[in-house]
Amino acid sequence: MTDFARLHRTGAPLLLPNAWDHASARLLAAQGFAAVGTTSLGVAAAAGLPDGAAATRDETLRLALSLGSAPFALSVDAEDGFSDDPAQVAAFARELWAVGVAGVNLEDRLGPAERHAEKIAAVKAAAPGLFVNARTDTHWLGGGGDGADDTLARLRAYREAGADGAFVPGLTDPAAIAALVRALGDVPLNVLYSPTGPTVPDLTALGVRRISLGSLLYRRALGAAVEALTGIREGRAPVGPTPAYADVQELSGG
Fold first, then answer.
1. Which range of residues forms the domain containing residue 98?
2. Based on the number of CB atoms within 10 Å of its own CB, is 196 exposed (0-12), middle (13-18) or buried (19 or more)?
3. 64: domain CATH number?
4. What's the pLDDT tens digit per position in 15-74?
5. How far apart are CA 236 and CA 230, in angstroms?
6. How far apart are CA 166 and CA 188, in angstroms?
7. H or E element, residue 63
8. Which of 42, 130, 135, 247 shows the smallest number of beta carbons within 10 Å?
9. Cα–Cα distance between 201 and 195 in angstroms, integer?
10. pTM of the full structure
């Protein structure tokens, strides 16, 4: 078992902040987090590309290359693997593993579960040590899909294909979360934190083993920038912490 996999099974749940570039990843890790994820929305938006359209394969790989040897575990949001071909998804996973990436998120986008399972199996064959967090979008895109049975059936198929973890973004109902934790047994459940959903202590009590922040920090950063700008325009000094120029330079080795 890798150190990253162990974070899903021992101690407190893995609270995973998600970065969008080199500096944000380094800054988040400096707060004491043993692992940092990437957010596909942040990576895509920063590059002026659409999210969820298989448009950011190169940008994602470049970010992984710059961070894979960092002193923290890196998990990469690879959308659906940037391809419908399991062999191409496996080749991308092999590149991630080669530069030091510890984990990858692969989403099914409510496509055929069999095809997603084939991708997962191909990735595990190509990079056995890479932690595959299998995401189903039954709640994110489908409003619950065909119900809890559809979610569980998909996740069980992905586990049979070799997935190491199960990710269900959009799932916020405490009873449904607890039921899924029980049904998955030894498969660690990952949920996406929502400011209007259960708190981190609540999710811990429900048995969740990984809590991702997704694009929340990136969107908050954009909001803070706009707030600072409008305040300056109206004669107010910005409030809140602002890293010094030298501190940001240090994040990139400058």
1. 3-251
2. exposed
3. 3.20.20.60
4. 999 999 999 999 999 999 999 999 999 999 999 999 999 999 999 999 999 998 899 999
5. 9
6. 6
7. helix 57-67
8. 247
9. 13
10. 0.95
